[in-house]
């Protein structure tokens, strides 16, 4: 059906524009991307201005003046929001009919539209018509989404080591405190492994910084490949890594420590690269004050670091657990 200039709803709307200043002020309030005028006494009939259809990629002459035309293109969940607001606006004129909804463009893309309206009431206050305006806010929504993604990227950068893409010290500390809180609540053990690359300074000096960075990257990927999916691998600084092993007992931490050591030795041992591993295992007392989580988590890491010092002092390329448990 073509866009007939003599359509009765359009004719009635133009008459209202000449007679009612409030209608004109409503239209003038914003820049518009389409008008619509709805016969609430015969609700299948709704006049939509041509600009609305061109916004959605359609030839206006292909569209009929029916409410079903636009309702077939709006996202179903957004249609429900619009209908709920319409119902409330008809019951209470002070309730605004104003929402941002999504339509499917003819090419399959999403068009974001701010849809506002005002009920035209008879002398008894009964809504008999609905006048509305559309504003295309797609560009605004796309900008908001781009900013959201950028903020997410920045958040990830704040939590990730730029060389290895592992979690950094800050992120690891937050995750460790959460695991400590879980240990307090459920009385479950967890373990921490601090891993240091043996003789890294010598390697860096002899091979160069670029080779050193590549070696650290290889170590990080190896540790990730042998760690459990539930564990967290992070880079503390320089040539030092740390792994949080959730619900891992002392015995399980020893098995894991040896697995980390041997995996690096098998991959990089021919290049003279090995690692030393310091382990600590902990089950938090149930009566620990949550205000001490940060202090306790630092203590767990310190204990593993001291165990690492013991492994280094005992000849490197081994794991150690305080006070005296070491293994070649």
Outline the structure in words.
- The protein contains eleven helices and eleven strands.
- With 328 residues, the chain is an alpha+beta fold.
- The chain has two domains: 135 residues, Beta-Lactamase; 168 residues, Alpha-Beta Plaits (2-Layer Sandwich), CATH 3.30.70.270.
- The strands form two sheets. Strands 7-8-6-9-10-11 form a six-stranded mixed beta sheet, with helices on both faces. The protein has a five-stranded antiparallel beta sheet with strand order 2-1-5-4-3, sandwiched between helices.
- The longest helix has 22 residues.
- It is elongated, with a radius of gyration of 33 Å.
- One of its GO terms (molecular function) is diguanylate cyclase activity.
- InterPro entries: Diguanylate_Cyclase, GGDEF_dom, Nucleotide_cyclase, PAC, PAS, PAS-assoc_C, PAS-like_dom_sf, PAS_fold_3.
- This is diguanylate cyclase.
Can you tell me the CATH architecture of the largest domain?
A: 2-Layer Sandwich
**Count of distinct strands:** 11
Which structural category do the helix and sheet elements fall into?
alpha+beta
Helix coverage percent of residues?
Answer: 40-55%
CATH fold call of the largest domain: Alpha-Beta Plaits
C-alpha geometry: elongated
